[in-house]
UniProtKB/TrEMBL annotation, chain A:
This is Acyl carrier protein. PANTHER family: ACYL CARRIER PROTEIN (PTHR20863), ACYL CARRIER PROTEIN, MITOCHONDRIAL (PTHR20863:SF28). Keywords: Electron transport, Fatty acid biosynthesis, Fatty acid metabolism, Lipid biosynthesis, Lipid metabolism, Mitochondrion, Phosphopantetheine, Phosphoprotein, Transit peptide, Transport. Residues 39-113 form the Carrier domain. It is found in: Mitochondrion. Belongs to the acyl carrier protein (ACP) family. One of its GO terms (molecular function) is acyl binding. GO terms for cellular component: mitochondrion. InterPro entries: ACP, ACP-like_sf, PP-bd_ACP, Ppantetheine_attach_site. Pathway: Lipid metabolism; fatty acid biosynthesis. The keyword Phosphoprotein applies.
From TrEMBL, chain B:
Keywords: Chaperone, Mitochondrion, Transit peptide. The gene is acn9. Coiled coil: none annotated. This is Succinate dehydrogenase assembly factor 3. GO terms for biological process: mitochondrial respiratory chain complex II assembly; succinate metabolic process. Interacts with the iron-sulfur protein subunit within the SDH catalytic dimer. It is found in: Mitochondrion matrix. Pfam families: Complex1_LYR_2 (PF13233). InterPro entries: SDHAF3/Sdh7. GO terms for cellular component: mitochondrial intermembrane space; mitochondrial matrix. Belongs to the complex I LYR family. SDHAF3 subfamily.
């Protein structure tokens, strides 16, 4: 039983990791030079931020800063990690420390060619 | 002492390392990290230092184990390693010293958690009913 539990955890883990790799390869071939439009990035960023539990019911605009939305530094980190998952990227520490608003998040995604 | 940026970097790393876990284990792990970190926002310097060290140890453990599982998977795909005993592993057993430090209430909680977590996978299983031995330390099949 124990080994079955492990195998069950493992089976679902494998395909997602492989899917991610092939998607990244596809991107490299077909979208040289910023595939995502300003509008799309903005919409998806605002969507992720609005769904964060502390932001639900608040008006989130590109101009909103994380502190205006009532987010502390740990909350902002939660949001950025969720943004990473949305765009399938990893934001390096020195960049993440500088991002304090929706606008800065959108701008970072826009200049990250691997974002998809 | 560690800087605020170092704490935040570790925190992001912890949430990221849970991406390899399947639901609902991922959400449970993330929620545990979030709660613990918020409970320790205003702690004294000595505790904060130990707090950082212990979470760093956890992160290192998770990353090392992830790497090992990845290597195992790659070898299996290449057909170089068909050893059926070499299953990927998740987590580890508690040491005797760690178990000795727990009080009765904590042991009770841990035992409940163990039973609940096995039921999660029981729902996934292929229909056959199995009585689970909650003492997994004696069940290394």
């Amino acid at each position: 039983m124990f080994s079955r539990a492990i195998r069950s955890a493992f089976t679902s883990y494998t395909p997602s990791m492989m899917a991610r790799t092939s998607a990244q390869t596809t991107f490299r071939y077909y979208s040289a030079g910023g595939a995502l439009s300003e509008g799309e990035v903005s919409e998806r960023v605002l969507d992720v931020v609005s769904k964060y539990d502390k932001c639900v019911g608040k008006k989130v605009t590109p101009a909103s800063t994380f502190s205006e939305l009532g987010l502390d530094s740990l909350d902002s980190a939660d949001v950025l990690v969720a943004i990473e998952e949305e765009f399938n990227i990893e934001i390096p520490d020195d960049e993440a420390d500088k991002i304090n608003s929706c606008k800065e998040t959108i701008s970072y995604i826009r200049r990250t060619p691997t974002a998809k | 002492m560690y800087s605020k940026d170092q704490f935040l970097s570790l925190y992001r790393g912890l949430l990221r390392c849970h991406r390899i876990l399947q639901e609902p284990i991922k959400s449970m792990g993330d929620q545990y990290v979030r709660t613990e970190w918020r409970l320790h926002l205003k702690t004294d310097k000595k505790t904060a230092f130990i707090f950082y060290k212990k979470w760093q140890e956890y992160l290192d453990f998770m990353l090392t184990q992830h790497q090992k599982n990845d290597d195992l998977l790659n070898n299996t795909i290449d057909g170089q390693n068909n050893d059926s005993n070499a299953l990927p592993s998740f987590g580890r057993h508690m040491t005797v010293r760690e178990l000795e430090k727990l009080n009765d209430e904590q042991k009770g909680q841990l035992s409940k958690l163990k039973i609940e977590s096995f039921q999660l996978f029981e729902d996934d299983a292929d229909g056959e009913s199995t009585i689970i031995d909650p003492d997994i330390t004696n069940n290394k099949k």
